[in-house]
Amino acid sequence: MNALFVLAVILFILMILVGGKKGARSFIAIFLNFSVLFLTILFMLDPQVNPIILTLVACAVISCINLFYVNEVNIKTKTALAATVISTSILLLFIFVIVKNAMIHGFGREEIEEVPLYTLYIGVDFVKVATSVIIMSTIGAIIDIAISITSPMREIYTHHPTISRKDLFASGMSIGRDILGTSTNTLFFAFFGGYLTLLIWFKELSYSLGEIVNSKIFSAEMITILCAGIGVTLVIPITSWITAFYLVRNREKKEDLKT
Amino acid sequence: MNGLKHIWKKVSLKQYILYTSLLLCFTASIIFVNHNYSFYDHPIAEVIETNIVDQTEKNDIYNNQDYLFTQHIIATLKNGEDKGQLIHLKNQYSSSGAYDQAYKVGNKLFVSINTDTQEHTYLTGTIDDVKRDMYVVFTAWVFIFILLIVGKKQGFTSIITLVINAVLLSYALDIYLHTSNISLLLICSISAILFTVISLLFVNGFNEKTYAAIVATLLGTFLSLLITYFVMVITSENGLRYEGMPFLTEHPQMLFLAGILVGSLGAVMDVAITMSSSIFSLYEKNPAISIKALKESGLAIGRDIMGTMTNILFFVYISGSIPMLLLYFKNNSPLGPTLSFHLSIEMARALAGGIGIVLTIPLGLYAAIYFINKKRARL
Questions:
Q1: What are the TM regions of this chain, as residue ranges (chain A) (predicted)?
Q2: Would you call B263 and A194 a contact, using CB atoms and an 8 Å cutoff?
């Protein structure tokens, strides 16, 4: 039997046991996400398609799956979607500039040794692909933060319907601050777990500090981790602002209708 | 009133000192990485002029179209015996840039100087790599500033926790490499316990909430590791393509399990602390709340977070394989084998992490209830 299949079955059973119907939906969402990711890769094969725009579309679709399918369509998930799309757009710009200047796109010398038979001139813009990779690895965490902020903000608004936009924004920021530490921790450990082999490999070959920091692979992974951290932090003010703006504007609209 | 004013003054002075010293550190480190040439033994050259001397179109048997350029570069050496001299370099790059890049004026490059250049008035050489340290440092500073501006005190604690964890991990790997007879899994297990205790205590302080989260995290991670190991044994590791792991040296199974342990730890901690703090806050709001009500609300919270938490791991693990998959597909590799070769390990990691996350929901719930019951018995 295939080990991956057995692991997937165990995860599915556990999700249903703990989460019931919602658990089943979460499990299906994971496979929908995987399909979107896979489709994105297939589209990237076409040199005519801009990988960055493709990534933006993919991120929006992935956010829709995780927000609207797992949860439901309501004001919380709608504002979370807006926040995710805006944050990823800003991040894409920042990451693109960093990737282009630091030249961390493509493969490192150490990686290329493993694929000697292949032609490397495949016509796909690797600077843009590298930018997409960083965003894609962070999108899960960005969605998580966005929904974790909009949900309680909506609760606060229901309990204090007269709250001002500024106060609502401040409460969103304070919710965000509370989850910031654990979210960055989640990302960092996930990346470290993936880079464990690389770290051991660098240490075994006893590279000097200068060689490690300047090598394409290590600097690419460091910059990925840092950009992921920047991403999950930036989502906090953006989500708080959008949610506060949206909720208060809705209230003002209603008040206008009454008068 | 006076006392209050005094405290305010003190706090703002402290903050003032903090911000000034941060700004000083920032400026000093940026200046340093832009002028640290003498710290490198490898010759470094700064590009001052570039010319494209040749351009060809490249088509291969799989209909991939690309353009190749040859660049003539003049650069000044920044360190070593020939400091200040000009060096002529050649660079070939493609418009896709899978393993090459165009250089611009101002780029700093590591070069090797040719020794047999007596007939020229200038030096010639080859480009070895790009100097990237300033970009890593710059991004790190952007990260620190954004975390401090948005997160304030909590941002500061998370930076400290991250640094401590990174140093600990590096130290643990050193121990592993220098003592050949200790297994990596054992070292990572001990580090995992330390990571958990340090991270959770730092963020949440010494209280029952934290203890419940620590217990749940450790049980959840090790239980998911055990399940993964069990699955590996009963399926005799069928479908796990360790050779697809990059930079593999030896003991792939061990590295795979250690990767699962470290990789899922953060997500499991996140779930554990979310569960225990929400259950404790329900209890604090209403100390008479029944265990049944706590269980119900706890499970509802768990249901909300398990999907998004598992997704975080999926995206982190699988996205990294995108460039390699593109390269293989563009070279007409068959779909199925390529996917299983490059993704099987990453998928297994994500699934194992997901198992840990879901298991931690009931574990966190019962750990919190256990500590609440103990607290009630004391009252």
A1: 28-45, 52-69, 81-99, 179-202, 222-248
A2: yes
